[in-house]
Design goal:
Layout lengths: L4 H14 L2 E5 L1 H9 L8 E9 L1 H4 L1 E6 L9 E4 L3 E2 L7 H19 L6
Antiparallel strand pairs: 1-2, 1-5, 2-3, 3-4
Length: 114
């Protein structure tokens, strides 16, 4: 098991109560988003919706980049985002992400060809 499901669900509920939330994308995520688009994606975005996709998918976030056209919805794992440390939930989110990444690395150790 990757996540503690109960803790994950509580975090999702707390995040939903705080929506919309300001977040920051990782460089890697921006590069991925830009590879399929002609537009420049900013570092900062808004999280408009949060869901728990079970142990396998983890917590996902719907992102808003304040673009005029909204034909594309960007949904990403919370592990690809950073939250302002002044945000009351930032420490809980960071702890969840660190735990999930650590468990995923442990689970997939030796499965990735070098």
């Amino acid at each position: 098991m990757i996540d503690d499901v109960e803790i994950s669900i509580v975090l999702v509920e707390r995040m939903r109560a705080a929506l919309p939330m300001r977040a920051f994308t990782t460089k890697r995520l921006r590069k991925t988003l830009q590879s399929g688009s002609k537009r420049e994606f900013p570092h900062q975005c808004g999280v408009t919706e949060v869901s728990y996709m079970g142990d396998e998918g983890g917590i996902i976030c719907h992102l808003d980049f304040d673009f005029d056209d909204t034909k594309n919805t960007h949904v990403v794992s919370i592990t690809h985002l950073w939250f302002d440390r002044r945000d009351p939930l930032a420490r809980e989110i960071e702890a969840y992400c660190k735990h999930r990444i650590k468990r995923l690395k442990k689970l997939h150790r030796g499965m990735v060809p070098s």
